[in-house]
Every structure is written in C-alpha cells, then in structure tokens.
Amino acid sequence: GPLSERRLMDVRLGELPAWLATCDFSPQGLLGGVQKAWSSYYDKYINVKRGGPAGISMLLAGYCLLSYGWNYQHISKISFWVSVL
Amino acid sequence: VLHATRPLHTTQQCLAPLPPLPEKGGEVRYGLIPEEFFQFLYPKTGVTGPYMLGTGLLLYFLSKEIYVVNHETVAAACILSVIIYGVKKFGSDVAAFADKLNEEKVAKALEVKNEAIKDLETAIEQEKKEQWRVEGRSYLFDAKRNNIAMLLETNYRERLLMVYNEVKKRLDYQVAMQNLKRQKEQDHMIQWVEKNVIQSITPQQQKESIAKCILDLKALSKSAQAAV
C-alpha cells in the first residue's frame, strides 16, 4: 500500500526517511501514535483469556532498562568493590 | 486507558455480538522476548542466532562496563530468582483462580442474557395470545350490541307505559267529569221536581189527602184487628 499507511515493521530500510517524513509529529499525532502502540500491545499480550507472565514482565523489563539508562551517569561513577568495602 | 480497543461499528455491516477474546496472548520466550524476534532472525541465522546475539551483547555490555556490576546486580539476581521460583510454583494455581473468577463473571452475564431472552419470549407469547383475543372482538361487540338493544327496548317500553298511563288518567278525568255533571244534573232535577211538587200541594189538597189517609188507616186497622 502507500507509504504513509504502512506500519513501521513493514517499511523497508531504504524507505525509512520517507516514512518518517509522512509521520504526524504534532502533539495530537504523537498522542495518537502512543495510544495506538499501547492498544496494540494491550490487545496482544494482556487482553486475552489466558495470559501469562509475559504481559507485565515485558513492561517491567522495559521499565528496568529505562531507569538504568536514566541513572547510568550515577551508576557508572561507583564501582562494585568500592561499594562493598 | 480507554478500553475501546476493538473498533466497534466502523464497517457498514457490524457483527452484533463482539468477537470473543483471543485464547492466548502472543508467544513470548523466557517471559521477556517475543517470538517475532526469533522468527525475524531465523531466515538469516537459523535457530541459534538470537542466542548468539544475546550472549554477544551481554559480554559486550559487561566488558565495556555499559552494564556495571555492583550491589544492585546481586539484589536483582536474588529478586529475580525469587520471582521466577514463585511464578513457577504458584503460577498455575493463580491462573486457575483467575479463570474461575472470570467464569463466574461470564456465567452471571449469561444468566442475565438468558433471563432477558426468557422474559422476551413470554412477552411474545402473551402478545400472540392478545392477537388471538382480538379475533373474538366480533363476539364481544355483538354481545354489547345486544345489551344496548335491550336497554333501548326496555326504555322504550317504559315510556310507552308512561304515555299509556298518562292518557288513561286524562281520559278517566274526562269520564269522571261527565259522570259528575250528569249526577249533578239529576240531583238538581230531582230537587227541583220535589220542590215544585211540594209547592203544588195546596192546603186543600193536603186536608183531603190527610182525611184519605185517616180513612185508609181506619180500614187497615179494621182489617188488622180482624186478622189478629
């Protein structure tokens, strides 16, 4: 289909800048994009009859990585042996 | 989060009952990485590709100190092991409990739906009964018409009787009047005749009649004495 209507996974690498250009970066557009991403994730992993640990565990892992990334500056200052001693 | 995650009534022909929830969520390996990632790498690297990638990334992060090993690592390892042990041991029980709760909810909703269906069916039957009753309307109206005709008849006859009585009363009055008049005339005539007769009896006639009566009485007394 046309470029603007394809999802990110279906866009080829060479077309990525063009695809980014067609994106809607206004606040409403971003909010809509976030909403769509969350609803697709929710439908796939959480809103099912017999879900498992996968639904929230992926969210928690993502949260761990994000917080590690935010605190990297602070963490990288102290090394293990210094904190133990 | 707005729970309208499925598009409702967006197409022209909408299926009235919602499609049921999918049975299982997307496949996730080791609880963290979706299957799609493995399938994505399979054509190029085969089965072991993602594991190699994972190991290489891990060693790279460790060696370059992008991931720092400190007290938090130990804490994370302990927490993770406890969590994994807990999930493995009690996961199925918790899942069964949650399934039971869901079952109850669904059963209640089904209950409500069946109740509503039953009520509507009884309503339909009653409606059909009413429609059957409508056919008997003609009999009902015939009976009513008969009633009304009878009322009219009785009323008519009552009035007829009243008219008859009134007319009879008036005629009786006339008859009584005539009778009275005749009687009065008769009485008056009798009185007049008596009065004239008494007036016409002159004193001389009176003496004569008295003498005659005395003679008759003497004759009678004689005959009576003879009889005794």
From TrEMBL, chain A:
<dbReference type="GO" id="GO:0045259">
    <property type="term" value="C:proton-transporting ATP synthase complex"/>
</dbReference>
<comment type="similarity">
    <text>Belongs to the ATPase F chain family.</text>
</comment>
<keyword id="KW-0375">Hydrogen ion transport</keyword>
<dbReference type="GO" id="GO:0031966">
    <property type="term" value="C:mitochondrial membrane"/>
</dbReference>
<keyword id="KW-0472">Membrane</keyword>
<keyword id="KW-0066">ATP synthesis</keyword>
<keyword id="KW-0813">Transport</keyword>
<protein>
    <submittedName>
        <fullName>ATPK synthase</fullName>
    </submittedName>
</protein>
<dbReference type="GO" id="GO:0042776">
    <property type="term" value="P:proton motive force-driven mitochondrial ATP synthesis"/>
</dbReference>
<dbReference type="InterPro" id="IPR019344">
    <property type="entry name" value="F1F0-ATPsyn_F_prd"/>
</dbReference>
<keyword id="KW-0138">CF(0)</keyword>
<dbReference type="Pfam" id="PF10206">
    <property type="entry name" value="WRW"/>
</dbReference>
<keyword id="KW-0406">Ion transport</keyword>
<keyword id="KW-0496">Mitochondrion</keyword>
<dbReference type="GO" id="GO:0046933">
    <property type="term" value="F:proton-transporting ATP synthase activity, rotational mechanism"/>
</dbReference>
UniProtKB/TrEMBL annotation, chain B:
<keyword id="KW-0999">Mitochondrion inner membrane</keyword>
<keyword id="KW-0375">Hydrogen ion transport</keyword>
<dbReference type="InterPro" id="IPR008688">
    <property type="entry name" value="ATP_synth_Bsub_B/MI25"/>
</dbReference>
<comment type="similarity">
    <text>Belongs to the eukaryotic ATPase B chain family.</text>
</comment>
<comment type="function">
    <text>Subunit b, of the mitochondrial membrane ATP synthase complex (F(1)F(0) ATP synthase or Complex V) that produces ATP from ADP in the presence of a proton gradient across the membrane which is generated by electron transport complexes of the respiratory chain. ATP synthase complex consist of a soluble F(1) head domain - the catalytic core - and a membrane F(1) domain - the membrane proton channel. These two domains are linked by a central stalk rotating inside the F(1) region and a stationary peripheral stalk.</text>
</comment>
<dbReference type="Pfam" id="PF05405">
    <property type="entry name" value="Mt_ATP-synt_B"/>
</dbReference>
<comment type="subunit">
    <text>F-type ATPases have 2 components, CF(1) - the catalytic core - and CF(0) - the membrane proton channel. CF(1) and CF(0) have multiple subunits.</text>
</comment>
<keyword id="KW-0406">Ion transport</keyword>
<dbReference type="InterPro" id="IPR013837">
    <property type="entry name" value="ATP_synth_F0_suB"/>
</dbReference>
<keyword id="KW-0472">Membrane</keyword>
<dbReference type="GO" id="GO:0005743">
    <property type="term" value="C:mitochondrial inner membrane"/>
</dbReference>
<dbReference type="GO" id="GO:0046933">
    <property type="term" value="F:proton-transporting ATP synthase activity, rotational mechanism"/>
</dbReference>
<keyword id="KW-0138">CF(0)</keyword>
<keyword id="KW-0496">Mitochondrion</keyword>
<keyword id="KW-0813">Transport</keyword>
<dbReference type="GO" id="GO:0045259">
    <property type="term" value="C:proton-transporting ATP synthase complex"/>
</dbReference>
<protein>
    <recommendedName>
        <fullName>ATP synthase subunit b</fullName>
    </recommendedName>
</protein>
